[in-house]
Design goal:
151 residues, two-stranded antiparallel sheet, 2 helices, 11 strands, globular
């Protein structure tokens, strides 16, 4: 009986570890997707919070960018610039407060700046947002086709 219980505990602990590993691997950070003229991907803040980056109409004069991120703290009042590689880029800013945390959205409609960011990524360089969020080039030249990354 004792051997059966020990064997059962070993199987359960192994399956729990495997489930945890599968759950962790399902988050596809730093993988680019493209569909319907939108190039998008997920990354994370230095604190491990998710960040979604979405380029619409890349390469065209109508290109725009939306960055959405979760963070701890309070929403800022007024407009906030999006800092890209150490330079402030004018952006529309909205924020939602949720239980001591916030979800921030930055929208950039200056197509020249947006297309410059895409060219930077396609040159295999990383974008640095808000001073600590790394947006990797990864597969930006050959994005996966799909609806969305796994959350």
């Amino acid at each position: 009986m004792k051997k059966n219980v020990t064997a059962l505990l070993l199987v359960l602990s192994a399956s729990t570890s495997a489930t945890a590993a599968i759950t962790w691997q399902e988050r596809e950070y730093n993988t680019w997707y493209a569909k319907n003229a939108i190039l998008y991907g997920m990354t994370q803040t230095s604190a491990g919070k998710p960040v979604m980056v979405s380029f619409s109409q890349p390469g065209f004069s109508s290109a725009n960018l939306v960055v959405s991120m979760a963070a701890a703290g309070e929403c800022a009042d007024g407009s906030q610039p999006l800092n890209v590689n150490g330079k402030d880029v004018p952006a529309a800013y909205t924020c939602q407060q949720i239980n001591g945390n916030k979800i921030e959205h930055f929208s950039v409609v200056d197509a020249d700046k947006v297309n410059g960011m895409i060219a930077h990524l396609k040159s295999d360089f990383t974008l640095l947002l808000q001073g600590d969020i790394k947006v990797w080039a990864a597969n930006v030249k050959t994005p996966r086709y799909g609806v969305a990354p796994r959350f």
